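Two proteins follow. First one:
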Amino acid sequence: MDSKELWKVLEEADLLASQGEVDRAIDRMAAEITGRLRDSRPLVLCVMNGGLIISGQLLPKLHFPLEIDYTQATRYGNETTGGGLTWKAMPQRDMAGRTVLIMDDILDEGVTLDSLARYCYGQGAQEVLLAVLVEKLHLRKVKPGMRADFSGLEVGDRFLFGYGLDYKGYWRNAPGIYAVKGL
């Protein structure tokens, strides 16, 4: 895609949540997470690349001791449809007996997050919680009724970008949550 096409995607997109709305959602999530985890010394696991922005915005608002690690697993690459899960980096911290909080940009079908949660339990995690900026509301979850423990925004079933979510590798930096026209 060239720059002109990428600008057109942004210009034609529907703004679903402004930067101010996202900021308020992150503040609310921080309060909820702090209330639940403040005495648990959790391991926070950032899912790269999508979880980078939400983690960077959320972590400074969590006023309790925690450790940070990351993983990279993807189903989309730079495409608009998901495929098989590809692991690019595995977490390095010990999870045995710990509460693990997985932070990602979105809970869509839940394939990646479910795989990560199962991995964490397999490494001895006592509890695994999910924190996502956006949770899509649809019935195609990998586990019926799957929900994040902490979510900032709930949206319909559209192809999204902004605040960590990308469109073909671009626009993760868009200052809000946008839906691609026609997708």
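Second one, unrelated to the first:
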Amino acid sequence: MDYRKYQSRRVWLHLISIPFIWLPIIAVILLDILTSLYQFVCFPLYGIRRVKRSAYIQILDRNKLSYLNPLEKLGCMYCGYANGFLLYAKEIASRTEKYWCGIMHADKPGFKTQEDQVKQHFARFGDKEDFWKKYGK
């Protein structure tokens, strides 16, 4: 493929995809606010250790890279924020699940389960005694 044709096509593909890439930022920001508020209010009530947001979200480091242009820096900040937030929200959801329903899901091929460190705290699926032992039911 001719490099110039490829570059021209690539620019058009990027322009078409921009709204689909950037529109979710509104939902991510709102969900970030609600998730943070949820853990700030509820985790102390449940005795769950809070998730440190700064351990997951770091948006102001890649913008210091001199070899990126301003649009690339903005894109890097967005990706760092969105991906960091999703990891942050996953950790909050995992701690919530462990508190309310620490039972592993049934083992199904291809199904993604919690990490091993979380699994060892969850009761085995269908094992009533393990559930009672771990959750005092």
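SUMMARY FIELD: The chain has two domains: 24-101, 102-137. The mean pLDDT is 86.
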